[in-house]
Protein: YceI family protein
Organism: Geomonas diazotrophica
Amino acid sequence: MIRLTAARVAGLFTAAFLFAAPVLASAATWNIDPDHSSIGFKVRHLMVSNVKGVFGKVSGVVNIDDRDLTRSSVTATIDTTSIDTGVAKRDAHLKSPDFLDVAKYPTMTFVSTGLTRGSGGSFKVLGNLTLHGVTRPVVLDVEGLSPEVKDPMGTIRRGAAASTAINRKDFGLTWNKMLEAGGVAVGDEVTISIEVEMTKAR
């Protein structure tokens, strides 16, 4: 029978902690900075041009494991009432039940389900997007993570840019009008560009 003294147990505990510390230190929690992040989009209008807009209010938490990015995760919430295309009348229509119905669905959410590495530091984030009461899988193509920097206030920051495309009809956004010359008023595909700045949780 092996007997462990209190000193021996303490020594083993300390060794185990020191061995695990580098792994634990590699993972960090980051908060999305709403003041320096946005979700941009564009969609075809009248079959001749693209209308661009932005959701200006986004929040969430990103857990980053630099030793193994596949163990990282993202949860984000976008305020649908913050949509801005630069035209008040159009924004009001997009907020109406014809499109986003922001009174009923004031937010959309993204929750990651996995991550795969790409080339040159890029990677793909797989997840579920809930929009207009419908949840569908989407894939974000992320260019890569910026290095950590310290701002003048001492806060550690990091950024990332990503893109994806969705079919709005997959989320129940089906409103449209046929054009006399053929085609439709609003395209089905919505191209999304994401700019995120994060602050390291303390």
